[in-house]
Specification:
Radius of gyration: 17 Å
Low-confidence stretches: none
Oligomer: single chain
Number of domains: 1
Mean pLDDT: 91
Structural class: mainly alpha
Number of strands: 0
Order of helices and strands: HHHHHHH
Helix content: over 70%
Strand content: under 5%
Largest sheet: none
């Protein structure tokens, strides 16, 4: 575990940030939105939050420099699991908050198939962006990867703001596209670590 960078103790600052994010996006915002939180676009957007956590974490894990394919792929997997874990916790907290605070919210639960497609899209997006950030970090630098990630996050945020209603209808094939991109970036990372 320590070899892939997961053996570090968690500081109070990091723990405080995570608890704050869970409180704001997992409890307060769903409580504030109420039953509107169950609109198909919002749980799908929540299902796509993994890259915000996983990709920057991977850049932190790769700060030691080049390593072999085995270590790098384990770090990509760990960052992806971390990002998706945070996503699922936020989504469950949000839906749970709405169900607890609004009596008839169970009538508006998200469609399970649509939610599954959204989670698959989020997984593909998280894996693609963590693999992309790994390749950029190994090929160029961690600073370059963070700049590219910030630009992509701004672009995705703009897309979500302008076309959030569109996301549930493209989640299925979007998942296939993002998983394909993830495969391409994983091949690039494997090629980079082999040389």
């Amino acid at each position: 575990m320590r070899k892939i960078g997961l053996g570090w103790p968690v500081g109070w600052k990091t723990l405080g940030i995570h608890v704050s994010l869970l409180a704001v996006f997992g409890v307060f915002l769903p409580w504030f939105k109420g039953v509107e939180f169950m609109d198909p676009a919002i749980p799908t957007i929540y299902a796509c939050l993994g890259p915000l956590f996983g990709a920057p974490a991977l850049v932190q894990l790769l700060r030691d420099g080049d390593s072999g394919w085995g270590t790098t792929s384990a770090r990509i997997a760990a960052a992806t699991v971390y990002g998706e874990g945070m996503t699922v916790v936020l989504l469950l907290l949000g839906i749970g908050t709405v169900l607890i605070t609004h009596r008839l919210a169970y009538l508006y639960l998200p469609d399970p198939i649509l939610l599954g497609e959204g989670l698959l899209l989020g997984f593909g997006l998280t894996l693609a962006l963590t693999a992309m950030s790994a390749w950029i970090t190994l090929q160029f630098s961690g600073r370059m990867a963070i700049v590219v990630l910030r630009l992509l996050f701004l672009l995705l945020f703009g897309l979500f703001v302008m076309r959030s209603w569109w996301l549930p209808s493209i989640a299925g094939w979007g998942a296939l596209v993002t998983l394909g991109l993830a495969g391409c970036f994983l091949l690039l990372v494997k090629q980079r670590t082999a040389s």
